[in-house]
Structures are given as structure tokens and as C-alpha cells.
């Protein structure tokens, strides 16, 4: 058992921390308030290699391990969780999904651009009536010989209007149920795609979330990922890794709020002393520190299992569940520690609290994680 990071891991952590503090912190409150997509920041993240961290260098990626990805995600999420969700979707759903299961031609065509942020991708599984119940796909992809014809609506799509490609999950053969589902790479400029208006959200407000309508969209056969009927397994396998990304996002939101509390508690005075000298505050900080350590260890364990080819479905769900629940609790306590100052935007913790909420919902709600974990431990 070795709990130390390599010098490469420390360097990645330090680089991400510096980048987040130097480039993401400024303007983060305005971007949140005005729902401004972080275009320049994402461009910089692409140039620095944060958007394709684990992609093989032969496709222009960083060739890094999942531990490095977790460390970078935590640092970026401490400052701007809107940027980190864009990073998470591009890395662990889109790039990883294509690299792991795509054809050589698909990898050569899309990965170099995705890995450098010259294009970003989106993952389209959820529908108006298929969120947690992901096998109930209503979007259809009918086999027309040399192409598929896609019709349907996808909901809550991160990077909906900014992505250049969509990974779309759709039903080809209804009779076969989930075994009749396929996954496709759909280019945004294909005829028949309509992007809905950007959602006006509680949190991660500057990330771009939309619905997407597909009306008789022709997708060439070579854009199907994997064998016919592989689409649902593709979605599940890809989400296993995605959940490590969102777990580390939740971890970063929590540890960002905690660091702000540590600073504030040593500056703010009440009843004649700094507030950390009151046990009500110091015990809250002790709980936060303990829970953040647990959360980080769960993320790193899931990442380590992934890097060592050990089944990580249960570990990633545990990490996602725990980190999301603790992010919500810790950020709520962070607002409490800041008192009235915590309730206004300038002190950042109210934004972190709003951002934390989505981590209990997307890429599988906390309840879905409990379903996955309970099925795994009881099988
Ligand atoms: N890896 C590989 N295959 C998996 C899998 C995984 N992690 N999880 C499920 N499957 C397979 C099952 O083995 C089954 O295939 P077989 O019949 O060939 O064995 C198939 O997928 C259907 O699984 P299951 O019978 O468990 O389906 P359920 O509808 O009962 O449950 C859950 C599936 C709930 C786990 C799934 O729908 C899910 O994860 N929902 C949440 C989706 C989500 O995260 N949405 C967020 C969208 S992205 S923001």
C-alpha cells in the first residue's frame, strides 16, 4: 500500500491548481451569473491538455492515468465546476468512449481534435422520459442499409450547443429491448439537428446544457460504435468512468468550499476571538476534513482500479455517491460558517453549494448509484 503521489502526479496537481487560480478564478462569478460559456478558458484548457488527459499520445492526448485525471479534476472544480463538467464529459465520456470502443477510423478522425479541444463532444443518453430508466430509449435509429436514420429528442445535454460531435444512444430494434440499442457518433452539422435553448440552471450555470432534437438525421454506418446492439453496454461502461470524473468534481467542489472556510474561520472574529476557536466551528471543520479525505480516497481507489484493469463499476458508483452527498453537506455547512457573507456571491460558497446539487443528479442520481452498489454487493 502506497499513499504517496509520484512526482508526475504532483506536477499535474500543481499545474491544474495554478491554472485554476490564475485563469479560472477571475470572472467566475460573472460567468455564473450571466450564464456565459467559458469559451476562452476552455480553449486554454484544450491547449494545456486538460481536455484529453488520458488519450493516447498517438492521437494527440496526454497519455496520463486516471489518478492524474482525478487530481486535475479536483483542482479545476475547486474554482469553476462549470469548466470541470465540460472537461469531465469530454475526457471520460466522449474521448474514452471513442478510444476504448471506437474503430481505428473513428479514433483517427475524432480523437486528435477532441484531445486538444479543437472540438468538444457531448454524450446523449437522457431523454424527456428516460433519465434513470436509461433502457427506455424512445429515440430511434433505423437501419437503412448504408446509413441509419435517427429520430427523437435528447435532454440535459452538457455541451449541447458547443459540441461538434454527439455520441447518441438510440433504439434500432425495439423487439430486442436494451440489446437492440446502438451508439453513434453524430456530427453536429448533419441535416435535421435542432439544438434547444440553453437551460437556465441552479448551478454550473456557465456550462451549456440543452436538449437536442433529431429529425430524420442520416448517420453513415461507419459511425456506429461497436457491434450492432452494443449501444446500451457502451453507455453503461462509459458511465462507469464518467462517474469517477463527476466524483472528483464533487470532491473538488467540497474541498474548494472547505479551503475557503479554513481561511475565513481564521480571519473572522466573534465574541472576542477568531471563529475557529469556537468548537461549533472547529468541529464542523474537523468533519469536513475527515469527509474530504474519505471522498478523495474513494476517487483515487476507483481511478487506481481503472488504471489496473480491475472492475471498477462498484468503486466508481461508491465514489460518486459519497462525494456527491458530502459535497452537498460540506458546501451547505460552508455557507453556514460564512453566515450572511456566505449567502452573497462574492464569497463563492453559495455558488459551490448550488454547483454541488447537480453532482447528486447527473451521470446517475445518488439513488441509481445505490442501486448499482446494492446489486453488486448482493449478487
Ligand atoms: N457494464 C456493462 N453492462 C451493464 C452495466 C455495466 N456497468 N450495467 C448494466 N449492464 C447491462 C446488464 O448486464 C444488462 O445486460 P444483459 O441483459 O445482457 O445482462 C443490461 O445492461 C441492462 O441492465 P439491467 O438489466 O441492470 O437494467 P436496469 O434497467 O434494471 O438498470 C441501470 C440499469 C439502472 C443500472 C441503468 O439504466 C443506469 O445506469 N441508469 C442511470 C443512467 C444514467 O446514469 N443516466 C445519466 C445520463 S448521463 S448525464
Describe this structure in words.
- The two termini are 28 Å apart.
- The mean pLDDT is 98.
- The relative contact order is 0.12.
- The strands form three sheets. Strands 2-3-7-6 form a four-stranded antiparallel sheet, covered by helices on one side. A three-stranded mixed sheet has the order 1-4-5.
- It is globular and about 80 Å long.
- Helix content is 52%, strand content 14%.
- Helix 4 crosses helix 7 and helix 5 runs antiparallel to helix 6 (104-115).
- The chain contains eleven helices and nine strands.
- Coenzyme a persulfide binds at residues 125-126, 132, 134-135, 178, 232-233, 236-237, 239-240, 313, 362-364, 368, 371-372.
The largest sheet is: 4 strands, antiparallel
Number of strands: 9
- Individual helix count: 11
Question: Order of strands in the sheet with the most strands?
Answer: 2-3-7-6
Radius of gyration computed on alpha carbons: 21 Å
Strand proportion, as a percent range, falls in: 5-15%
SS content category:
alpha+beta
Helix coverage percent: 40-55%
Cα shape: globular
- Unreliable runs: none
Distance N terminus to C terminus? 28 Å
Q: What ligand species are in this complex?
A: coenzyme a persulfide
* Multimeric state: single chain
Mean pLDDT: 98
- Give the SSE order as H and E letters: HHHHHHEEEEEEEHEEHHHH
Amino acid at each position: 500500500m502506497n499513499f504517496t503521489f509520484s512526482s508526475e502526479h504532483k506536477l499535474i496537481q500543481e499545474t491544474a491548481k495554478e491554472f485554476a487560480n490564475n485563469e479560472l478564478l477571475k470572472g467566475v462569478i460573472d460567468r455564473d451569473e450571466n450564464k456565459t460559456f467559458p469559451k476562452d478558458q476552455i480553449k486554454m484548457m484544450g491547449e494545456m491538455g486538460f481536455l484529453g488527459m488520458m488519450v493516447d499520445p498517438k492521437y494527440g492526448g496526454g497519455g496520463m492515468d486516471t489518478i492524474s485525471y482525478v487530481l486535475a479534476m479536483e483542482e479545476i472544480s475547486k474554482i469553476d465546476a462549470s469548466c470541470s463538467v465540460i472537461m469531465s464529459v469530454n475526457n471520460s465520456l466522449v474521448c474514452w468512449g471513442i478510444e476504448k470502443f471506437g474503430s481505428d477510423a473513428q479514433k483517427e478522425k475524432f480523437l486528435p481534435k477532441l484531445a486538444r479541444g479543437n472540438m468538444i463532444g457531448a454524450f446523449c443518453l437522457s431523454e424527456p422520459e428516460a433519465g434513470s430508466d436509461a433502457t427506455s430509449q424512445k429515440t430511434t435509429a433505423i437501419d437503412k442499409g448504408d446509413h441509419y436514420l435517427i429520430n427523437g429528442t435528447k435532454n440535459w445535454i452538457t455541451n449541447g450547443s458547443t459540441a461538434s460531435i454527439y455520441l447518441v444512444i438510440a433504439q434500432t430494434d425495439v423487439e430486442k429491448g436494451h440489446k437492440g440499442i446502438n451508439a453513434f457518433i453524430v456530427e453536429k452539422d448533419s441535416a435535421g439537428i435542432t439544438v434547444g435553448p440553453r437551460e437556465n440552471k441552479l448551478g454550473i450555470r456557465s456550462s451549456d446544457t440543452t436538449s437536442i432534437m433529431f429529425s430524420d438525421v442520416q448517420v453513415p454506418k461507419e459511425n456506429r460504435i461497436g457491434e450492432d446492439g452494443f449501444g446500451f453496454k457502451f453507455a453503461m461502461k462509459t458511465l462507469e468512468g464518467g462517474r469517477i470524473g463527476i466524483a472528483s468534481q464533487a470532491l473538488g467542489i467540497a474541498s474548494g468550499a472547505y479551503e475557503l472556510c479554513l481561511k475565513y474561520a481564521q480571519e473572522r472574529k466573534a465574541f472576542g476571538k477568531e471563529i475557529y476557536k469556537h468548537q461549533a466551528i472547529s468541529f464542523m471543520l474537523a468533519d469536513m476534513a475527515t469527509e474530504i479525505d474519505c471522498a478523495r480516497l474513494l476517487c483515487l481507489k476507483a481511478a487506481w482500479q481503472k488504471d489496473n484493469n480491475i472492475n471498477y463499476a462498484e468503486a466508481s458508483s461508491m465514489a460518486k455517491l459519497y462525494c456527491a452527498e458530502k459535497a452537498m453537506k460540506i458546501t451547505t455547512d460552508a455557507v453556514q460558517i460564512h453566515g450572511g457573507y456566505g449567502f452573497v456571491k462574492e464569497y463563492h460558497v453559495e455558488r459551490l453549494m448550488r454547483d454541488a446539487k447537480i453532482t447528486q443528479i447527473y451521470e446517475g442520481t445518488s439513488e441509481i448509484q445505490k442501486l448499482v452498489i446494492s446489486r453488486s454487493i448482493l449478487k
